Structure formats: structure tokens, C-alpha cells
Amino acid sequence: MTIMHYKGYEASVEFDEEAEIFHGEVLNLRDVITFQGASAGELKQAFADSVEDYLQFCRERGEEPERPYSGQFVVRTPPVLHKALSLAARREGVSLNKWVTTALERAVK
């Protein structure tokens, strides 16, 4: 599986050997957005066209398009860990949010 990116949207792409065509689907949305192409160029254009169609559809309906990630999520921790994280952030002179973001960035590298 290959991942493509366009305007912040991600799509998974696979090759159907039998049909000799690439097909993809935008990830992490409630709405289903699919596309296909016979070549890499066609696939990239189909992905862009599908996202643009989705954005236009949302505009016509007066709806905000769904974004794959908002940049916010809730993490529940035991109170003892929450306290330890807060103290670690305070010792470094940063907010808890900044401290956790930095730790997560290090973890995924």
C-alpha cells in the first residue's frame, strides 16, 4: 500500500493486477472518497479531482469539509502520571501541551 497526500488529505493506493488499474481511497473520513487511474499521473489527478469535488460539494451544501485530523485529542492518564507530566513540563519552563507534543514528536521519529 502506498500513501498519497493532497491538501492535507491522505489516501491509500493499491494496484489491482487483474484489472491493471490503481485505485485509492481517502483515509480517516466518515465520507467515502475514492478514485482510480491507469497510470501514476492519472491517479494523482484523480485524487486531486476527487478531493476538489468533495470540497465543492461541501461548499454547495454550506457544510464545513471534514478534515482528517483536527490537531486535538484527549488523553486519559492516572492522576499520578498527570502530576509527573505537569512537573516535568514546569521544570522545563513550557506548557504541559508543549511538553507532551515534544515528547510525541520524539517518539514517532
Commentary on this structure:
The chain is an alpha+beta fold and 109 residues long. It has helices at 40-61, 79-92, 96-108, and strands spanning 2-6, 9-16, 21-26, 34-37. A 4-stranded antiparallel β-sheet has the order 1-2-3-4, covered by helices on one side. α2 (79-92) packs across α3. The radius of gyration is 20 Å and the shape is elongated. The protein starts with a strand and ends with a helix.
Strand content: 15-25%
Oligomer: single chain
Q: What's the story with the biggest beta sheet?
A: 4 strands, antiparallel
Helix proportion of residues, in percent? 40-55%
Poorly predicted runs: none
Q: Which structural category do the helix and sheet elements fall into?
A: alpha+beta
Short description:
The chain has 109 residues and is α+β, with helices and mostly antiparallel strands. It is built from 3 helices and 4 strands, in the order ββββααα.
